[in-house]
Amino acid sequence: MSTYTALVHNSNSFHPISRLLFRLSRSTVELVSGNCSLHLFYQLSSSLFVDPYELAQRQQSYTFVRWGHADLEKPVHAVANSDTNVLINVNVPLSLPEDENGGKQLDVEVPLHARYGVPLTSTSPNVGSGNYQGLVLEPPEAFIACPNGFLPPERGQELSTPPAHLSESQLREADLAPEATHFTHIPHSLSDHPVNIIRIPTGHEQYLLLVQSGTAIVILLSFFCVSIVAVRTAVRLSSGAHTKTE
């Protein structure tokens, strides 16, 4: 039976990495080496997103289709109730290392990004955790898509319908027409840490006035410095032009 484990690296940051460790049976490897494909479907809350330009640089590992809010710089309160969905098509290498059971091992890493959160208050439940906001990252849905007529690797894992969280229009956009595709679910195997928590650094409202005042002062000082340099440069150029005229 093929399974996978979901982990998170750099979990205490704005740039966590979702890592999937697959243990693929021989029959699964044969299918994905032929006309079938291995997919991962992420449902990300408004606090998380993927950078399409960053994922595009990983074309040797996978391709992707993304749905959701595209503005990468907005804080979480500006995109509330706007989730991001990502469907990844994994490029399975021809040569994979074997595990102790004779199956194959495959590692897939998907870089994620966290949005700036709402500043914490003195009554926020996360205050005691060092100004971090805890967020559960649900494991992605993993499945194999085969053109109709190809036998799935494990009969007991067959799906009679497409993955529940993917709409028909999304499947068609990913070239996985439901009437022409057979979907086989790959179960998630719990690791030593069954729940993946991302701890997003978050500011505290008691420092807002200090930060805003400091930022305003720095901007004003920078403006004065640039103005002084500009005036001195203009005077020097004007003086040089006057000397040449004489």
TrEMBL record:
Its membrane topology: Single-pass membrane protein
Highest taxon in the source lineage: Eukaryota
Compartment list: Endoplasmic reticulum membrane
Any single GO BP term: GPI anchor biosynthetic process
Residue stretches spanning the membrane: 207-231
Primary location class: endoplasmic reticulum
Annotated metabolic or biological route of this protein: Glycolipid biosynthesis; glycosylphosphatidylinositol-anchor biosynthesis
Keywords carried by this UniProt record: Endoplasmic reticulum, Glycoprotein, GPI-anchor biosynthesis, Membrane, Transmembrane, Transmembrane helix
GO cellular component: endoplasmic reticulum membrane
PANTHER family: PHOSPHATIDYLINOSITOL-GLYCAN BIOSYNTHESIS CLASS X PROTEIN
Family: Belongs to the PIGX family.
Function: Required for proper folding and/or the stability of a subset of proteins in the endoplasmic reticulum. Component of glycosylphosphatidylinositol-mannosyltransferase 1 which transfers the first of the 4 mannoses in the GPI-anchor precursors during GPI-anchor biosynthesis. Probably acts by stabilizing the mannosyltransferase GPI14.
Protein name, entry field: Protein PBN1
Organism this protein belongs to: Macrolepiota fuliginosa MF-IS2
